[in-house]
Each structure stands twice: as C-alpha cells, then as structure tokens.
Amino acid sequence: MNITILRFDTIDSTNTEAANQARKGADEGLCVVAREQTAGRGRQGRSWISEKDSGLYFSIVLRPKLETRYISLITLAAGIAVYDTLKEFGIDPDIKWVNDVLVREKKISGILAETVETTKGIAVIVGIGINLTSRSFPDELAQIATSIESETTMMRSLGPRAIDPMNVETRLTSFLSFWYEILCGSDGPNEIVRNWQQRSSYFTDKSVRVTLPDRTIEGTTDGLEQNGALRIRLADGSVTIVQAGDVERLRGQ
Ligand code: BTN
Predict the structure, then answer these.
(1) 126 Cα–ligand 1 center, Å
(2) Which of 54, 63, 80, 182 is the most buried (most CB within 10 A)?
(3) Taking the complete model, does pTM exceed 0.85, yes or no?
C-alpha cells in the first residue's frame, strides 16, 4: 500500500478529515495525523481526549475489495497492527474484543472504524489513538488508562523518556499495511482470526459481561466467527453471537 501522510497541528478529528478526504477521492493509504484533536471521537458516541502531543491521533483511508461480510475484520486487523507496534517497544499488550488494546488491564489504544460512501465506492476509515504519555490524563482516566511512556518507564525502572511519535507512526503504518494485505489475500479472514486469537486473552474461556444495544448478557467467550463476531456461551450452554457490543471482564478472571 502506498502511504501518504497529511499532517495537522490541530484538527477536530482525524477520522472526520480522513472521511472528507475519501469523499473527495483520496486514494487508499492516505493517512491523517494530528498533534491534537479538539473533537476526538471514540466508539459508541464517546469522546477521545486528545491533548497536544499526548497521543498518536491517526486515521487511514482504505478502499477494501473484500466481501461485505468481512469488512468488520479490518478492525481486528488494525488491533493486531497496534499490538505488534507496542511489542516493538517491549510492551506486552492484550486485545479486548473488539479492538481495545490493553496493558495490565488498562487501555493504551482505541480503534474507531467507520465506513463512508464515496463516488469511488465504499471507503473504510480506520482511526487509531495510541496514548504516548499519561502526563495529561485527567484523574478518571489515570485509573483506567496507560501509555507507552508509563509502561516503558516502569520496565526500565528509570526516569521517563519521551516517546518519539514518528517512531510509533512509522511502525504502525508498516504493520497496518502488512496485516491489511494479509486480510485481503487468500484465506485472509481465517489468517486474521488466527492471529487475533494468538494476541487476545479474550478469545476463549473468559468470563465476561457484554452490553448489547438492547440487553446485557453474561457468559464465557467461545472464539470468534469467521467475520470476527464474538461467540458467548451462556450458563444454559447456548451460544450468542455478538456483532457489536461492549465487553467487560468479570471479576477474578
Ligand atoms: C475507542 O476506543 O472508543 C476508539 C477511540 C479512537 C480514537 C481515535 S484518535 C484518532 C481517530 N480520530 C478520532 O476522532 N478518533 C480516532
């Protein structure tokens, strides 16, 4: 994939800008990166706090030639790419379905994939936020989130060393291209599910509560469907297939 980067000091949301670029005909591989977002968006209408230089705020335009039912796997492929990027810094992450990347149960990265209709067909915008430093976390976030700087400082048990965002960005774009090409290749969907499985403790046997649009269920994870949907085994032995929902680990797991 040919990566082109469009940089901003400040922007409302890199996803919004990438969507606008896609509507204007941008090619696959166009990336929007900002030092700060004034209206960063998270999943399910939440906001994504995006202080200047505290995180990598990144969105890429994709124009996948995939069967529609496999489009949802782009999110999983992006989760794998973020996981591999963090590994390069010596961090040992986990992926919580569908695409929260955690370290020691704290969120270090979030992914927001959105589709847009364009004259060149459907484009998928994959937005990725990776916390670089925890210094400007508000109190409520400090309990539940972490950053590359915090994790690497802890490992080296030395003073904090600033993380170079360009270094994170370069590795991320290269892993994203790699896993996206795997997804679009032969046996791509199975490859992505297999690789996601190797990186996520949530794949099987995890007791979870899942908040669905209309109800909440509790059960044990039982693998993924070929399109990336999460299988939940309920107490009565039946299996519910979750296409979209918020997963929460139950205590003691
Ligand atoms: C989530 O976990 O809720 C997803 C968060 C996604 C945040 C990123 S930051 C770059 C891109 N631009 C946005 O407005 N959101 C995504």
Answers:
(1) 9
(2) 80
(3) yes
